[in-house]
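A common beginner's mistake is to predict each chain separately and then try to dock the pieces by hand. The better habit, illustrated here, is to supply every component at once so that their relative placement is modeled jointly.
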Amino acid sequence: MITECPVPRPESERVLLGHGAGGRLTAELLERTILPAFGGQDGPLEDASPLPGLGELVMTTDGFVVSPLFFPGGDIGSLAVHGTVNDLAMRGAAPIALSVALIVEEGLELGLLEAVLRSLGKAAQEAGVPVITGDTKVVGRGAADQVFITTTGIGRRLPGLTPSAAGAHPGDAVLLSGPIGLHGTAVLSTREGLGFEADIASDSRPLHRLVAALSPLGDRLRVLRDPTRGGLAAALNEIARDSAVAVDIDEGTVPVPEPVAAACDILGLDPLHVANEGCMVVFVAPDAADAALAALRSLPEGSGAVRIGKVLPADGHPGRVVMRTAVGARRVMDMPLGEQLPRIC
Amino acid sequence: MITECPVPRPESERVLLGHGAGGRLTAELLERTILPAFGGQDGPLEDASPLPGLGELVMTTDGFVVSPLFFPGGDIGSLAVHGTVNDLAMRGAAPIALSVALIVEEGLELGLLEAVLRSLGKAAQEAGVPVITGDTKVVGRGAADQVFITTTGIGRRLPGLTPSAAGAHPGDAVLLSGPIGLHGTAVLSTREGLGFEADIASDSRPLHRLVAALSPLGDRLRVLRDPTRGGLAAALNEIARDSAVAVDIDEGTVPVPEPVAAACDILGLDPLHVANEGCMVVFVAPDAADAALAALRSLPEGSGAVRIGKVLPADGHPGRVVMRTAVGARRVMDMPLGEQLPRIC
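With all components supplied together, the output reads:
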């Protein structure tokens, strides 16, 4: 009867942790497996997409599987709100409603679930967005790990804003709203008991107010992207590829907090590949760079905003991101391949 | 540093499988744990809720954790589409967009994932709704069971339709669009290898075309509810409770296919408690009953529609559902307590 169940494939063709890491393996999974399955549908899957016939409304969805559930600076509940609010914000949209679907492992302490949900509710309230619908499924012990949360958000685009990963132009300034590497190293340090937890807290926070502060820029605001899985390197590579430009980054300007650098050194991680949950890259027209920096710095969550580089013509290398080091050397900033930090969000 | 993590509670206060079963334990979890956490928000969590300020649009979300992934009559991919389309339909809405979030266990065969996604894509196309955005997370072996899918849907209400679980009036006719018990017994039989798979296939299917066929009834269409987790008994009890009425069901009219009755007998299940994924209960004004039955029967998915009972005044027992048996006896049809069939959807 079960005619649709396919013939098993060789061992090698299995899902790897890296398929969920936001790097090259994720892109392959999307292109080879996911998009063809939805081939008759409405174009590519994006982080946040316009509702058909209602272009001012955008929709985004994200599963949260972070381990441990609680970490310095946040927890899976607040993260589920911030991640979704930020996916909407990166399309220039203010959040208007969230849904929350829980998959809970049998035997989870109710008190832990309550704490996660209280944090989620508080984060939603602070972001000014209601949770309007939800679902709860329980699976047996060992069929899930504690609790997974899938949050879906609907947002309304701010008038005049149409940021897109394909919107970068040669000459544009590249800004970053705050330091990188805090979320990933905070979660990893807590999970592995590495002892950095006293010095590093996740940057998990909503970014929609920063985007609202940038809205007077109109179409001079070219690209917004929050460097989550895959880190700053993945975000810049995706923008360079989708805009068919080159991006030139000045290494010395990229803010990496000292404890993050120390943790990455010990763990063998590149801070450029580590997930963030509370900063964003902003590409703006050259004449808007100073106004954009001032707008970002006018809010606490943007107080560390800096200019980190600029967009160059592709010159035969569309999609290339190059880092200029302090001594003047140049190296290519590659797209991360696979999984550095499983279950970081 | 991890100050929000609560003090552990006694062993008894843990999440049970029954908390996800759609019965009394689910209602308790909602009332005691979930709703208070979102207390500052926008009212109760419902299966599908209006978007704030955009009342013609409704949103619903559902996690799908069914095991096995493939079963007679469907699979987790098609089920994820049908379940979400039907939640929208039960609010009188046509689906306009879906999002799909995957949580995948490391090591899952890519061929299996592809088959699930192809089925999901096909079901969406057949329902006429695009998948516009998505997300994929991968967790380590043993941290999830193969693949979980959370589908969120946005729908637009059909003009003039405002069905609600609180909308039943004394005198209303209670209709059922098709036979009950097929989905739950098909999944359970496949999972446990009970051998009923040759005779029973899930009724998983979209119901939005049936709802469209009922739309000429306008406000004489009082309630729509698909009896999924908790079965027909849970659906009728929820409606009776929310409408503060009594419901009187004629046992002999409730269509239970013979193989379903045989399977339930052997398994010790009550067909009234078994989940369905392709039928719905419809409450209509008395003078609309014949028109509603004719509209339902005009489509293949409603060809087995029947009248199964009527709404009575509460008479001091609001929320009571009573079943009249063939010999004229009357028994209360209780809300199922907890879990009969874990991971049925």
